[in-house]
């Protein structure tokens, strides 16, 4: 009997110790954790991350969960990732994404990689000042997720998982739409694309084909109307720097004045000088993000090149550099067009499309 009693006490002690360890582990898991998230930005300059929303491991994790969670939509059918698909460099292959009511949006979905290097508003027309502002607008848009922020907060507050994760990220389990926006901003800022063939070429770890080399020369060389044989396509006039964009809003001549239906940046600034101007997008991963332009009118890169070569239309706010090329075109023959497209394809980052750090956590 004494031996049985000793065994019982020993088993009880083991159970108590195990429970204590489990309780301790649970307690540790829901503590505020400010461990910084380290960006791998390669050749890029360090990004200017907002001082009030530095990236942390737990903040990025929370943003990633939110980005992929369909609770953010009114009928639980859509997440941010429904229109920003990783396999297409976080763009959408649809001309206009379809929202929860089965209705299309008004503009083509933009990508969300390398957002940390964008410093001049967000959306095609720049109506969101900061990335955190942008993150909440699709949730409330009637043509997109068609939900209210109080409803989303209530759905998340009912989840122990979310309360714990908000505490890890922000120090309290109180969920607010402001914290949601900060977490989404952190996750989108963590999505870096810098491992294309072009990047490897710059690092001397791969070589370009003859066609890719000619395309690169055409891309970066200036337009020269007086010496057509020496003229470049002058693409870098608008698509420059490490991210192949200039953070400006420009009219690229896809419509003349009579054909302009979407006034773009003018809708935000109320300035006639901004009519039909749209945010210049990054050309990184451009081969993955068709269709092209704010209205998705071009389905191939070849059509885009044809537009700049000989299809630019005159309008009051057309960029002066494009007006200069409009009369004579870019002098690109069939082979030059092929070369230019082949160079653009070297900007594809296949690692981005498969990186588990950016994939669904569900």
List the main descriptive attributes of the protein structure presented here.
single chain, 362 residues, mainly alpha, Cytochrome Bc1 Complex, Chain D, domain 2, 12 helices
Q: What structural class do the secondary elements suggest?
A: mainly alpha
The run of helices and strands is: HHHHHHHHEHEHHH
Strand content: under 5%
CATH architecture grouping of the largest domain: Orthogonal Bundle
Main sheet makeup: 2 strands, antiparallel
**What's the β-strand tally?**
2
For the record, what CATH class of the largest domain applies? Mainly Alpha
Order of strands across the widest beta sheet? 1-2
Determine the mean pLDDT: 93
**What's the shape?**
globular
3D architecture notes:
The chain is an all-alpha fold. It contains twelve helices and two strands; from the N terminus they run H-H-H-H-H-H-H-H-E-H-E-H-H-H. A two-stranded antiparallel sheet has the order 1-2.
Write the layout of secondary structure elements.
Layout: H1 2-29, H2 57-68, H3 131-140, H4 149-157, H5 160-170, H6 177-190, H7 197-202, H8 210-220, E1 249-250, H9 266-269, E2 278-279, H10 301-311, H11 320-326, H12 334-345
Antiparallel strand pairs: 1-2
Helix pairs in contact: 2-5, 2-6, 3-6, 8-12, 10-12
Short account of what is shown:
The chain is mainly alpha-helical.
């Amino acid at each position: 009997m004494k031996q049985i009693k000793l065994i019982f006490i020993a088993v009880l002690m083991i159970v108590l110790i195990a429970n204590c360890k489990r309780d301790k582990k649970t307690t540790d898991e829901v503590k505020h954790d400010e461990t910084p998230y380290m960006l791998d930005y390669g050749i890029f300059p360090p990004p200017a991350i907002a001082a009030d929303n530095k990236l942390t491991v737990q903040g990025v994790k929370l943003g990633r969960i939110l980005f992929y969670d369909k609770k953010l939509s009114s009928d639980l059918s859509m997440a941010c990732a429904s229109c920003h698909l990783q396999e297409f460099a976080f763009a959408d292959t649809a001309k206009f994404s379809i929202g929860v009511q089965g209705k299309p949006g008004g503009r083509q979905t933009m990508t969300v990689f390398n957002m940390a290097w964008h410093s001049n508003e967000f959306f095609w027309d720049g109506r969101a000042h900061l990335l955190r502002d942008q993150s909440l607008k699709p949730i409330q848009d009637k043509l997109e997720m068609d939900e209210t922020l109080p409803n989303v907060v209530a759905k998340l507050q009912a989840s122990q998982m979310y309360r714990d994760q908000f505490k890890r990220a922000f120090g309290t389990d109180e969920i607010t739409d402001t914290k949601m926006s900060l977490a989404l901003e952190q996750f989108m800022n963590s999505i870096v694309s810098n491992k294309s063939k072009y990047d490897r070429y710059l690092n001397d770890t791969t070589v370009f084909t003859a066609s890719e080399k000619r395309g690169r020369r055409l891309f970066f060389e200036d337009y020269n109307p007086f010496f057509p044989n020496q003229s470049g396509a002058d693409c870098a006039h608008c698509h420059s720097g490490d991210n192949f964009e200039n953070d400006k809003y420009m009219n690229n001549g896809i419509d003349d004045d009579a054909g302009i239906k979407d006034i773009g940046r003018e809708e935000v600034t109320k300035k006639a000088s901004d009519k039909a101007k749209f945010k210049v997008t990054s050309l990184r991963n451009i081969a993955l993000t068709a269709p092209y332009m704010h209205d998705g009118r071009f389905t191939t890169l070849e059509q885009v090149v044809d537009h700049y070569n000989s299809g630019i239309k005159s309008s009051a706010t057309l960029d002066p550099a494009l007006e200069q090329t409009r009369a004579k075109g870019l002098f690109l023959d069939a082979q030059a067009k092929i070369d230019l497209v082949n160079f653009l394809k070297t900007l594809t980052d296949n690692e981005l499309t498969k990186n588990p750090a950016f994939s669904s956590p569900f």
